[in-house]
Design goal:
Length: about 90
């Protein structure tokens, strides 16, 4: 895979992860207000191996599948993941 395509894939995973962290924060707030009580985001038939009531585990599964399929290094995605958390939550 070309470096350009690999970078674009990692960038897209980074965007999706950032959006999932934001969505998970919203879900946490809804749960605190007793407005979200579901057990999983997706049904078992959706094709994911994980089951969670937040988006991040699903995004990580997709990212890991992309890494394996496209020979990206997990460190690339982890670097973007930490950068996104810092941006979203104002941490470093």
């Amino acid at each position: 895979m070309s470096a350009n395509v690999s970078k674009q894939l990692v960038d897209n995973i980074s965007i999706i992860l950032k959006k999932s962290l934001s969505a998970d924060a919203t879900l946490a707030e809804l749960r605190n207000n007793k407005q979200a009580s579901f057990e999983a985001i997706f049904k078992k038939e959706a094709g994911f191996t994980c089951t969670a009531n937040t988006f991040q585990p699903y995004v990580e599964e997709i990212a890991n599948d992309g890494i394996l399929a496209k020979d990206l290094r997990p460190s690339d995605v982890n670097r973007y993941r930490e950068k996104d958390r810092a941006t979203l939550y104002g941490t470093s």
